[in-house]
Amino acid sequence: MGFYKTCRIYTPRFVALISLLLTALMPLAAKNFVVTLDAGHGGHDYGAIGEKTNEKTLTLAVVRKLGRLIEERLDDVDVVYTRDKDVFIPLNERAAIANNAKSDLFISVHINSVDKRNKNRRIIEGCQVYTLGLHKTAENLAVAKRENAVMELEPDHTEKYAGFDPNSLESDIVFELSQNKRLDQSIEFADAVHHELSTTAGRVPKGVRQAGFWVLWATSMPSVLVELDFICNPKSEKFMASDGGQESMVTSLYNAFCAYLNTYGSQVTGRQLPPARAIPVAGKQASQKEAAPVLQAAPAVEENSSADVVQVQKGDDVIPEISSDSDKPVYYVQILASATPLPANSSELKSVKDVEYYRDGGLYKYAVGKASSQSEAKKLLAKIKKTFPQAFIVKMERGRRVDFIKP
User: Fold this and answer.
1) Between the CA of residue 382 and those of 228, 375, 392, 404, what are the distances in Å?
2) Which fold has domain 33-269?
3) Is the full-model pTM beyond 0.85?
């Protein structure tokens, strides 16, 4: 009886201890990095139309090839597709797919175009990469309108997208308030994609920009929307439809992704990842053993520190940073924002004088006015909105934005 009593008393503890030890020795379930690839348009939505092909066909071809390349080369990455065949996927479902998969990066691939009445339609070319934000220019707004217009193909779009108006000041303010840490990472990745498309794929660089795209607004992870080139240009269309052209664009996206993974991958997975290897560019001396570069985040800018003031110059022209030692508020009309400093002679600033900027969310935000009262700022806003329809008033204290002022 003593033996059985001992077993009855100690066996449960012994089993619990063994179970605990076995659990500790078992490898933890590894979390892979998750990237969602979004091929723009699809099904009855053809997107932009070229002479021989269309946007939905080209984006699907590029996304499929990019996904296969990632799956073949990067064991620690899971690829999720919003669509992998020619079907129509509503915009809200595209964002939901990425969110439900707990994606760590969202890449939406598109093809650009301009209105048939544009005299430069057949010669315009180049790549653009967008992150979430204000439209800033009429050109950015036009692109956002074209891509967001897909929601109008859905019979219940007024209910599904209630409250979303990419042309309203309210939505602009929502976009601004959405800019947080993930936007900084989005901009870094966008810069890498833009650089690769221009150097590896030979696309004319047309800039990293911001605009109010639904799929970027609704996703909860770093996100970019890539416009590979202009399908309305026959030369660009031929390039994008060719095997060689698609291979170079896929390589560009892959190399940019490798750079992003090398920078942020281990933070996501919780373990050290092997270096992601970039694909060498044809004609350049590059080794397959070389890892893709690590993205360099923009250095933090201390508020009101004169040592960190960034001055953009052309001759004697300097765009000054907004600064003040006073607690008394001042009011500006914010006209645009940029991922990188704009030159003083930028075409986007040619219609305004006395422009200043402030840093916020990793962006350079440009404003004019310096009014001492809201009423004074509103008078200026009425004039500025003729050129910058998306402009709005911001309240500044000690060089920092503290509030939006609705008209």
Assistant:
1) 36, 11, 10, 16
2) Aminopeptidase (3.40.630)
3) no
